[in-house]
Amino acid sequence: MYLHHWGIDRSPFQVGPNRTSFYRSVAHEEALARIDFLSSHRRRLGLLLGESGIGKSLILQVAARSLKRAGKVVVLFDPAGASPTKLYWQVANQLGISSAAEDDLPQLWSRIADRVHENCIQQLDTVLLVDDAGSATPDVMTELLRLPQIDPQIDARWTTVLAASPAGARQWTESLCQQIDLRIDLERWDEPETVGFIQIALIEAGRFTPVFDEEAVSTLHNLAKGLPRHVVRLADFSMLAGAAAKLEMIDAETVRRAHREVTQTTMVAV
Fold this sequence. Notes:
The protein has 12 helices and 5 strands. It is of the alpha/beta class. The protein has 2 domains: 26-185, 3-Layer(aba) Sandwich (Rossmann fold), CATH 3.40.50.300; 189-269, Helicase, Ruva Protein, domain 3 (Orthogonal Bundle), CATH 1.10.8. It has a 5-stranded parallel sheet, with helices on both faces. The longest helix is centred in the C-terminal third of the chain and has 18 residues, at 252-269.
């Protein structure tokens, strides 16, 4: 009913790993450019900082694809729940290193260092993108602190980018913070960016005429407070509510009703 009513091929608003499009807001474009700068200028450590729902994971995924297209070797992983050994196994595996189950941390470190050195000899940049680094346990964080030092050369072709929320980053030691070469801050969307996102998402889904009136979009932006994940979810619920009511266009009151439903659903889930 949802797709048929609005005349679209697929849901335009998706959250999570199945999301099919990336809206290049000014802040997100700047973040991608800075990640590329870190690698291209051979900087060791960057920090991608933003609150939950701001789009850090999606930016890292897009950055990984872009860096790979540029011929760089990329490792992308989430350290949540990982031990130091599992961390190194993940890095080694994505670098194409065959490691035995009994390999310990020093052995894995040596194998990773050798591969990074091999890539350097071949004029290949290696980039380690760490999603949700703030969720890492203290012992894993210690290893993440060591990884940028895996190649001690001044012009090392080895770059690490840590993504974290401000709350997660506040737990880090001063020694880690002092190693950061570039901090990349992600901000919430302003209203024009929310408008642009909604328009592009609908067009990509096959809808070429407006679904939300102007007041509805403004209301949606204000209720979601410009946080991308909330914008996406509220837009999706609003379209569902509009389809159920057989509306030709979504108005502000429909968005407000959808927001109440989203809020209630979130409270029940919690």
